[in-house]
Design goal:
CATH topology of the largest domain in chain A: Rossmann fold
Oligomer: heterodimer
Shape of chain B: elongated
Mean pLDDT of chain A: 88
CATH architecture of the largest domain in chain A: 3-Layer(aba) Sandwich
Number of helices of chain A: 13
Radius of gyration of chain A: 23 Å
Strand content of chain A: 15-25%
Largest sheet of chain A: 7 strands, parallel
Order of helices and strands of chain B: HHHHHHH
Chain lengths: ~400, ~200
């Protein structure tokens, strides 16, 4: 589909010692680009003895810092800057793809050093930060090097418009949807999908149990109402967090008998779980910019129910690919779950729409879009090469 | 205050101001190149889209009426974009402030024509049923999507350049030199119902 193979340098600001959404996105992107014949090298903070994915060059130990409301493992300082420069010089890239350039870590350093076309991806949706406002004049020259800006969601794009100025195009996070389709279900987790079990549905939750914004309390408070209508319903709760589990058990009381806590689960258990259950519930109350598990659940064929926060509404095609309930409202969640279990043709129709809808989030689509951005970024610099080659003092 | 101190302060102020002007002039030059280069990339990509439209029109897979209007709209773009030497192209790009109203109108017409020729789900399904047809449609979609991206990126660069040139000292000291004030490229590149990037 595209022209020549490119040498792409991807910079990740967050440590692979404790991987999260951005790191997984970068790992999968590197793999997808390599499969299409590009050369990819990823620079990321990681201890030298951390087991990192293929393509990743560890930049050294990250420091845990409180930044933007949560603890992040970041890398900075003059030694890191030197490492970034050496990595850029050694690899002779056609293009740098820098993730979260506004995070004070490797990305910011790489943008500072870059003298090839730069594509930047903004992942997070964050409130306006005073630190960034102060730093903005220092960053402006670096930010002007960016040839193309990508935001992974509408919320992330809003953040770019408010914080950085200007605009960004939206390319969502990729998901290997095929890893979730045609996964053999686990009968232990199946409910209505098995013959004769119409009155014993299974409903699952995935996420940290002790992080309130993941919304487990919203679900636990809805459980008694659901059990009134479906006494044999089972709730499968997957995720880590002992404190959250204790709180949930305390609020459930006798209803706890209908709830299985599965603890932390592996990727393959996750895909089996989503392929087996009748409903996947995402009661997150906010702070989500995308909703990758929703895409995975849609790919696996689970009926999806989520809170009506902006990011989830868009992922669920405004309710056409999954049912929405009023954010934080357990009574409304119970009503929507009961409706979905009772009106099964409607749930089935949403699942069928979801099966087509999720294709836009598949890595094959997303990689093509990112390749198109690379093409345009490289073309724009190739047309008129910059005046000074190498690192100029005002970089 | 002694004379020596006054002179020293004046020299320092002048040095800081001079450095600011120099840094700003460099920045403006970089932005000017970025604007011109991204306009050239956009121009080239729009030409690729028009060529893909010509390929589709001459493939014999469209009905004759659609083929003629699509070819007419696409040739209008291609004729406007006369071939010149690469050096001359760079030179022109550095001295231009936009793609030109006429070109923008022609590109908008091409978009509208392609939409009306292919917008119907049936038209596209028929085209995609033929292996050659689906290849031509994919090439057109890829070129079109890239043109949309190129225009967004170019307009972003224009906005940065215009912002940088607003300052009083840029205007007073003519730091932008003879570079014309760039204008954003405004044209209709909406794909309507055509699936540009979901395949």
């Amino acid at each position: 589909m595209t022209g020549r193979a490119l040498r792409v340098g991807i910079v990740c600001p967050y440590s692979f010692d404790a991987p999260g959404g951005v790191q997984f996105h970068i790992r999968d992107l590197a793999q997808a680009l390599t499969q299409r014949g590009h050369f990819v090298s990823v620079l990321a903070p990681a201890d030298d003895d951390t087991d990192v994915p293929e393509h990743v060059t560890p930049a050294g130990k990250a420091i845990a810092v409180r930044y933007n409301g949560s603890v992040a493992r970041l890398s900075f300082g003059p030694r890191m800057a030197a490492r970034v420069r050496r990595w850029i010089e050694a690899n002779d890239f056609d293009l740098l793809h820098i993730h979260e350039p506004m995070v004070p870590s490797l990305s910011m350093l790489a943008l500072w050093e870059a003298d090839v076309p730069v594509v930047a991806t903004f992942h997070s949706a964050q409130a306006r930060s005073r630190a960034l406002q102060v730093a903005y004049p220092l960053l402006r020259q670096s930010l002007e090097k960016i040839a193309a800006r990508i935001a992974v969601s509408e919320d992330a794009r809003r953040t770019v418009i408010d914080h950085v100025g200007g605009d960004a195009i939206i390319i969502p996070n990729g998901v290997y949807t095929s890893a979730f389709t045609d996964v053999p279900p686990n009968p232990a987790w199946q409910g209505q999908k098995l013959p004769g079990l119409d009155d014993s549905p299974t409903i699952c939750f995935l996420g940290r149990l002790d992080e309130p914004r993941k919304g487990l309390p919203v679900l636990t408070q809805a459980i008694p109402d659901i059990l009134l209508r479906y006494p044999k319903a089972r709730f499968l709760i997957a995720g880590k967090g002992d404190e959250g589990k204790a709180t949930a058990l305390a609020s459930l009381g006798a209803h706890a008998a209908s709830v299985d806590f599965l603890g932390g689960i592996s990727d393959s258990e996750k895909s089996a779980l989503l392929s087996s259950v009748d409903l996947y519930v995402a009661p997150q109350t906010g702070g989500e910019s995308f909703g990758i598990v929703l895409v995975e659940a849609m790919s696996a064929g689970a009926g999806v129910i989520s809170s009506d926060i902006g990011a989830f509404r868009r992922v669920l095609d405004e309710g056409r690919a999954g049912a929405l309930f009023r954010n934080g409202d357990s009574a409304d969640l119970a009503r929507v779950i009961i409706d979905a279990l009772t009106d099964r043709p409607a749930t089935q129709a949403r699942r069928e729409h979801a099966a087509t809808w999720v294709k836009r989030y598949d890595w094959s689509t997303v990689t093509s879009q990112i390749e198109a951005v690379y093409d345009m970024a490289v073309a724009a610099q190739a047309a008129i090469p910059p005046p000074v080659k190498g690192r100029s003092w005002q970089a | 205050m002694r004379w020596a101190e006054i002179v020293l302060v004046c020299v320092l102020v002048l040095a800081v101001f001079g450095t600011t002007l120099w840094v700003t002039a460099n920045r403006l030059d970089r932005l000017h190149r970025k604007v011109s280069a991204s306009r050239m990339a956009l121009d080239a990509q729009l030409v690729r889209r028009a060529s893909a439209a010509v390929d589709l029109a001459t493939s014999g897979l469209l009905d004759p009426a659609s083929a003629i209007v699509v070819a007419d709209a696409a040739y209008a773009v291609l004729d406007d974009d006369a071939t010149i030497s690469p050096g001359e192209a760079v030179n022109r790009a550095l001295h231009a402030d936009s793609l030109g109203d006429q070109r923008e109108r022609e590109e908008s017409t091409l978009s509208a024509t392609l939409r009306s020729a292919l917008d119907d789900a049936g038209d596209l399904a028929e085209l995609n049923a033929d292996p050659a047809g689906s290849q031509l449609a994919a090439a057109l979609a890829a070129a079109w999507y890239r043109a949309q991206l190129a225009r967004r990126f170019h307009n972003e660069a224009v906005a940065q350049s215009v912002r940088a040139r607003r300052h009083w000292y840029v205007r007073w000291f003519r730091l932008a030199g003879y570079a014309p004030m760039p204008q954003t490229v405004e044209l209709d590149d909406n794909e309507g119902n055509l699936p540009l990037h979901h395949g």
